[in-house]
Design goal:
- With about 700 residues, this protein is an alpha+beta fold.
- It folds into 2 domains: about 280 residues, Distorted Sandwich (Beta-galactosidase, Chain A, domain 5), CATH 2.70.98; about 400 residues, Glycosyltransferase (Alpha/alpha barrel), CATH 1.50.10.10.
- It has 18 helices and 27 strands.
- The strands form 7 sheets. Strands 7-8-9-10-17-14-13-12 form an 8-stranded antiparallel β-sheet. It has a 6-stranded mixed β-sheet with strand order 6-5-4-11-16-15, with helices on one face. Strands 1-2-3 form a 3-stranded antiparallel β-sheet.
- Helix 8 packs antiparallel against helix 9 and helix 14 packs parallel to helix 16.
């Protein structure tokens, strides 16, 4: 890639925690439930072969204020100079399961997991505990074969949490440095020495002199784990970045982290993680085997890896203490931290179904039980379940408000469509017919509600949304593209949502055929055909494209019109011969639309995709999804594919964007929202 200096989230599964690292300076950190990186300093490095200087990866800033304040304390210590490795000498490789920096005699790797995770309600196994341990394994390898002396290797850390002091730990089999009770780094006792002081150099000098009396100064802001590697060989050392949140962590519902079943302290987490080093490394390598995307361009492989890391940084697995034994899977919405945002659920499920399908079911069940509601038109679902660990009351979201015509309005139609599509695709993938049977009546309610939102006069059915919810109170409903202009923001008459609605009708038909309810299946098929006819009528043959709005109120070309094709494609097993007739009609028109839209209307100057020709706000997660549909379903070849991939990767690597790891919304290539975001795992569809 263009630069090795960009932040990446390295996260335990379901812990809403991240060891974020990669951007130069104090730009990463150990973060718990944060909206962005923790902005902490890290010194990861070793002594040079001559013992004349200390070299570290450039992830730190000197705390000059602390040094100046305690100058009389620090001046009398002999200090070997500490310098960052030359940036030009650093090589970095990022994969879904590993992040490795190589420079001179040092190799530093962070291992993370994305396993096929078992359902925690059905088993308590070693595999599950390894998958859910709230720790990230780090490995430092020092090649000292050409060295003549023992060399010091170190991991230093200056935390940023003002509510917890830095501290050193020697307990049983682990030695560590931590801040408070919630986060820290641990290594095996005997292999590492823990120190604390005002600067890393002083700690290392105390280790060199074996001056234990000065090794730990409790008021010092810097801590470090230090080891010595002998001359003449290669040393491999492991450290675990660990997290722990005890007890109730939410409001609105009383929930604790699921990992509290097994571990109560950071030290217990560390002991398990370090004893499971082999299993964690194996899980990381298996993740790379499954998600490497060898057939993809270099840029796509990198974007997929970066997206997977950011997805897990937003995840929580909780236990509902009011329903003991019941697990709640949560994906927080990046910097916004909204809980299980429904219009992300429908996009993230493609990835989740490949790793842990039960998480999709968990979210859908939570929506049915607590966040389904009714308006004057029938059943619908809310936008979210709350924000920042605060669950909203039943039937209420944190986001939606009445009398609005843009951001923060209601998404009743889109979330209804999203729940239907997610439920049926989950059932198709998991073959969990019993689950769908439980929601058989709910599907009937969903169909009745969709019909009511079309038109209550049956002679005017279009198969698409014609009525806004009365909850809008004079405003109008919006789509997931809430911050875009009228080409994608408004729900009613939007061609993007019309195609997803057509897909929902096909999903309902599939569902009712499964249960041999021909009358309902026929009704769903009729609505699908009406939707197809309405969409087809709007096609502008003169221009060779669809307008953004079926009613002609906005003629802009948009790309997300093709999103809805993914659902019948998966539902019918990617077999064109099994597809309903309307699929071929839609696919043919979509190819023509793409030819026109991508020729000049929906392209940035550098080749990147514009979701709408009338807006520079383009979302990477949706671009990935649309690329997969265009290439694999429509057989459409992007004549500027290489330029597009380079452009999209460059957006994430831009100096102003790289701090936030994977972000979604890019305004002409600059991040403008949805930072530190999970939805980029739509990139899994490149491997479809």
């Amino acid at each position: 890639m263009q630069t090795p200096f960009y932040n990446t989230q390295h996260s335990p599964i379901g812990a809403f925690a991240s060891f974020t690292l990669g951007a130069q300076g104090a730009c990463g950190g150990l973060g718990l439930e944060l909206a962005g990186p923790a902005r902490e300093s890290f010194w990861i490095g070793c002594e040079d072969r001559e013992g004349k200087r200390l070299q570290a990866l450039p992830f730190f800033e000197h705390n000059l204020n602390a040094e100046a304040q305690f100058a009389t304390v620090s001046e009398d210590m002999h200090r070997v100079s500490l310098v960052p490795f030359a940036a030009s000498d650093i090589v970095r490789e990022l994969t879904p399961g590993r992040d490795t920096w190589i420079v001179e005699d040092l190799r530093f790797t962070i291992y993370t997991q994305a396993p096929h995770l078992p359902d925690p309600e059905l088993e308590d196994s070693q595999e599950l505990r390894v998958g859910l341990v709230p720790a990230v394994l780090c490995e430092l390898v020092v090649d000292n074969r050409r060295g003549k002396e023992c060399r010091r290797v170190f991991l230093g850390w200056q935390g940023s949490d003002v509510q917890g002091a830095m501290r050193c730990i020697d307990q049983g089999r682990v030695t560590g440095i931590a801040q408070g009770r919630a986060k820290g780094f641990y290594g095996a006792s005997g292999a590492w020495v823990a120190g604390q002081g005002f600067h890393l150099e002083g700690i290392l000098e105390s280790v060199r002199q074996r001056d234990i009396g000065r090794l730990r100064h409790g008021v010092g802001p810097v801590t470090a784990l230090v080891a010595e590697v002998p001359a003449g060989g290669v040393s491999v050392l492991h450290v675990a970045a660990c997290f722990m949140q005890e007890g109730v962590v939410t409001t609105g519902k009383r929930c604790r982290y699921w990992y509290n079943h097994w571990w109560k302290t950071l030290e217990e987490v560390a002991d398990f993680a370090l004893a499971s080093t082999e299993a964690l490394v194996h899980s990381s390598k298996a993740c790379d085997e499954n998600l490497s995307g060898r057939s993809l361009s270099r840029e796509r492989r990198w974007m997929l890896a970066q997206a997977v890391h950011s997805y897990y940084g937003s995840t929580q697995l909780l236990e509902d203490l009011e329903r003991l034994g019941e697990s709640l899977w949560i994906v927080n919405e990046g910097e916004y931290r909204m809980i299980n945002t429904m219009d992300l659920v429908v996009d993230q499920l493609f990835f989740e179904l490949t790793r842990h399908p039960w998480t999709v079911r968990s979210v859908l069940d939570q929506y049915v039980r607590d966040y389904s509601t009714s308006d004057s038109l029938g059943l619908t679902f809310r936008h979210d379940m709350g924000v920042a660990n605060s669950f909203t009351p039943q039937g209420i979201s944190a986001y939606e408000q009445s009398r609005r015509k843009g951001c923060f309005s209601f998404m009743c139609m889109e979330e209804l469509v999203n729940w239907v599509l997610s439920a049926v695709i989950y059932t198709k993938h998991s073959n969990n017919i019993d689950w769908l049977l439980e929601h058989k009546q709910k599907m009937v309610q969903c169909m009745d509600s969709l019909i009511a939102r079309d038109k209550q006069d049956s002679e005017q059915f279009l198969g698409t949304m014609q009525l806004d919810s009365d909850r809008c109170e004079g405003g109008h409903e919006i789509t997931t593209y809430d911050s875009l202009d009228e080409s994608l923001g408004r729900a009613r008459s939007n061609v993007y949502l019309a195609v997803k609605t057509w897909a929902a009708w096909l999903a309902l038909e599939w569902h009712f055929n499964l249960w041999e309810i021909p009358e309902s299946a026929a009704k769903a098929r009729a609505q699908a055909e009406q939707a197809c006819a309405s969409i087809k009528r709007s096609f502008n043959h003169k221009l060779g494209m669809f307008p953004a709005m079926l009613d002609g109120s906005c003629a802009s070309a948009i790309i997300p019109i093709i999103e809805g094709l993914i659902f019948p494609w998966i539902l019918y097993g990617k077999d064109v011969n099994k597809m309903p007739p309307s699929f071929a009609i839609m696919a043919d028109l979509m190819r023509k639309h793409l030819d026109t839209a991508m020729l000049a209307r929906c392209r940035f100057a550098n080749g990147g995709w514009k979701l709408s020709e009338s807006s520079d706000n383009s979302w990477l997660s949706k671009i990935y999804l649309c690329q997969a549909v265009a290439e694999q379903i429509l057989g459409w070849k992007d004549p500027e594919a290489e330029q597009a991939d380079r452009a999209h990767a460059a957006w994430l690597l831009d100096a102003d964007n790289a701090f936030y790891a994977w972000s979604d919304q890019m305004l002409a290539g600059k991040v403008c929202g949805s930072r530190y975001y999970p939805r980029g795992v739509t990139a899994i569809l490149w491997l479809m």
